[in-house]
From TrEMBL, chain A:
Sorted UniProt keywords: Exonuclease, Exosome, Hydrolase, Nuclease, Nucleus, rRNA processing
Lineage: Eukaryota, Metazoa, Ecdysozoa, Arthropoda, Hexapoda
Listed name of the protein: Exosome complex exonuclease RRP46
The Exoribonuclease phosphorolytic domain, residue ranges: 3-100, 106-161
TM helices/strands, residue ranges: none
InterPro entries linked to this entry: ExoRNase_PH_dom1 (IPR001247), ExoRNase_PH_dom2 (IPR015847), ExoRNase_PH_dom2_sf (IPR036345), PNPase/RNase_PH_dom_sf (IPR027408), Ribosomal_Su5_D2-typ_SF (IPR020568), RNase_PH (IPR050080)
A GO cellular component entry from the record: nuclear exosome (RNase complex)
GO molecular function: exonuclease activity; RNA binding
Keyword Nuclease applies: yes
Pfam families listed in its UniProt record: RNase_PH, RNase_PH_C
Gene Ontology BP, a term: nuclear mRNA surveillance
Length: 189, 279
């Protein structure tokens, strides 16, 4: 999945056999692994992994595959801003193409609040350097409610609400992108 | 002496149904309503060998924070900045979920969250920690150890950290640049300047609909989603919702309002604890 200059590659394995220590009797065990472009995964990446894991767990119908595990492996290729959003979107596309049953699709949008209190959607790394706060929201496709939210920096309540609304509108673009991709993919079969 | 065995109850066999029955009456098994917070108790300055310390109890959740100061050379690309290193430890003592060995994923995520909260809220200006630019700076190691995990871990950690930081007293240091000698005066003097007081509040979503404030460990493990709001003054510092059931805008707003009110209450409590420590 490539958004501007940020690129992320995702692979989904599952439902496959799970190690006995991670076995869950009523649903599938969802694992997320995030590998940065260079170096070993660090503590910061663990946070990304936990966000991805929880988002994917709620969107998948995990109860259909008990005693199995579904692994989502994400490799960062290029980082030019909005990496977390890119990773979530690519994970969703990978899950769609794997054919595992999902309750809803998810779309992630990132935005930032600049030093002059301006709201910018999908900023690049250059723009992010001059920011007061950066926010990433993940929405579901059915009711457009917030599935996940991750913020850095401080902001007021009103700014939060405003960015939530704007990102929600932007997520419509991503959902229509998904639809176009599926049309292309499905028409080849 | 024989140990009395607890009768096998609905709580152990079918915990979800047990909770649902209670929530249908708008009350929780420990007697609280859905929006009530547990009582918080704070004690500061209990560890004498540390530069700053605090113990916080939210209901049964207990977190101890100890701050030790060390001298080091600042980074080349940031010569005016000191270091602030938070570390959250979840020992096997606090909950059956954790095993001895390297820090668990949850401990790492919590440490990361605390580090991000500190930078987001700009609670400590790292420039205050610098003694001599490019040569000497303070490193504050903040160790947060959980002694009992009964839910709302991040809340307790943030409160303990802020309370401990406000008690830190750093000794004066004389640095001779030519001779490269440092002289630390044993008499501790200046207090650390804390610019803002972030307060965290945790909520869980049960069954995709019901919002519970300040969950216990049992409620957290049964919930379908969890969310932490960090408030600082009248600004929001962080809204951390790592996946979990989708929430409507109205529910988000409710959480933020609740967090704001609680922040006032907690700040008053920290102030009282600090005053009684000084006297």
């Amino acid at each position: 999945f490539i958004a501007g200059d940020t690129a992320v590659v995702t692979a989904v394995f599952g439902p496959v056999e799970v190690k006995p220590q991670r076995i869950l009797i009523d649903k599938a065990c969802v694992e997320a692994l995030y590998r940065p472009k260079s170096g070993l995964p660090c503590v910061h990446d663990r946070m990304h992994e936990s966000l991805l894991r929880n988002t994917c767990e709620t969107s998948l119908l995990a109860t259909l595959h008990p005693r199995t595990s579904i692994s989502i492996i994400i490799q960062e290729m290029q980082d030019s801003g909005g990496l977390l959003a890119c990773a979530v979107n690519s994970a969703c596309l990978a899950l769609m193409s794997s054919g595992i049953a999902m309750k809803f699709l998810v779309a992630a949008v990132s935005c930032m609040i600049s030093q002059e209190d301006k709201l910018l959607i999908d900023p690049t790394n250059k723009q992010l350097k001059d920011s007061k706060a950066s926010l990433t929201f993940v929405f579901d496709s059915v009711k457009k409610n917030t599935v996940a939210s991750h913020t850095t920096g401080s902001f007021t309540q009103i700014q939060y609400q405003e960015s939530l609304m704007k990102c929600r509108n932007a997520s419509d673009n991503i959902f229509s992108l998904y639809r176009d991709m599926v049309k292309k993919y499905a028409s080849r079969i | 002496m024989s140990m009395e065995k607890e009768p096998v109850s609905g709580r152990t066999i079918h915990p979800v149904k047990y909770y649902r029955d209670f929530l249908a009456q708008n009350v929780r098994p420990d007697g609280r309503s859905l929006q009530t917070f547990r009582p918080v108790s704070i004690n500061v300055g209990s560890i004498k060998t540390a530069e700053g310390s605090a113990i916080v109890k939210i209901g049964n959740t207990t977190v101890v924070c100890g701050i030790k100061a060390e001298l080091a050379k600042p980074k080349a690309e940031e010569p005016n900045f000191g270091y602030l290193v938070p570390n959250v430890e979840l020992p096997p003592l606090c909950s059956p979920k954790f095993r001895p060995g390297p820090p668990s994923d949850q401990a790492q995520v919590s440490s990361n969250f605390i580090a991000e909260t500190l930078t987001n809220s700009r609670c400590i200006d790292l420039r205050d920690l610098c003694i001599v630019s490019e040569h000497l700076a303070w490193v504050l190691h903040c160790d947060l150890i959980c002694l009992d995990h009964d839910g709302s871990l991040l809340d307790a950690c943030v409160i303990a950290l802020v309370a401990a930081l406000r008690t830190v007293e750093l000794p004066h240091v004389l640095y001779d640049a030519e001779a490269e000698k440092t002289v630390v005066s044993a008499e501790k003097r200046s207090k650390l300047k804390v610019h803002s007081e972030p307060v965290a509040t945790t909520y869980t979503i049960f069954d995709d609909e019901i919002l519970l404030t300040d969950p216990t460990n049992e409620e957290e493990s049964l919930s379908s989603g969890i969310m932490t709001v960090v408030v600082q003054g009248d600004k929001l510092c962080s809204v951390h919702k790592p996946g979990g059931s989708p929430l409507t805008d109205a529910q988000l707003q409710e959480c933020i309002n609740g967090a704001m009110k609680r922040a006032e209450h907690i700040n008053k409590l920290i102030n009282t604890a600090l005053k009684s420590h000084e006297t």
